[in-house]
Amino acid sequence: MHPLLAARWSPYAYDPTRDLQPHQLRALLEAAVWAPSKANSQPWRFLVGRRGDATFKAIFDALAPENQVWAGNAAALVVGVAQTVSEAGHPNSHAAYDLGQAMAQLTVQATAEGLFVHQMARFDPDRVRAAFNIPAGFDPYAVAAIGYLGHPAELPDDLRKWEQAPRVRRPLRETAFAGVWGHPAVD
């Protein structure tokens, strides 16, 4: 596995004193733009807030309280939005999948830049829709906090425990199958 993928993780502790440089933010968004998509539809859009600006505040205000505890220290908050209905009015059944690929590429680019990304599903999509006047056919799916690693000691006890816990993944033999369900595809 590439070391960049192995190094990726989703921290809660972000350094509130370090900002993203414009070239870094551009590189993250460019990486997302070059993701593959069904029929090259590119159904992703992003709302990008930098700490201290009005966009960041509106995104932050839409987060669930348990995410507000830590996400305000991130250098940027980015909402991943999927175009779930085409301009012709047809549903795009792969929009969420394609947005996920774009977010994954953004995340890998962030890791390459020495940044960290923590994606969140706990936010109020309707509040985001209203705050940014998102048109029908576009759905906010996730918010990503992006920034430099902070100090776990500054987190509340419950989050510090998560932050310092070992990273664990389901074994490959329980994830990838061949022949019949449950039979490992690789040893």
Automatic annotation (TrEMBL):
One of its GO terms (molecular function) is oxidoreductase activity. Keywords: Oxidoreductase. Pfam families: Nitroreductase. It comes from the Bacteria. Residues 6-148 form the Nitroreductase domain. The keyword Ribosomal protein does not apply. SUPFAM superfamilies: FMN-dependent nitroreductase-like. Transmembrane segments: none annotated. InterPro entries: Nitroreductase (IPR029479), Nitroreductase-like (IPR000415). PANTHER family: NAD(P)H NITROREDUCTASE YDGI-RELATED, NADH DEHYDROGENASE_NAD(P)H NITROREDUCTASE XCC3605-RELATED. Belongs to the nitroreductase family. This is Putative nitroreductase. It comes from Carbonactinospora thermoautotrophica.
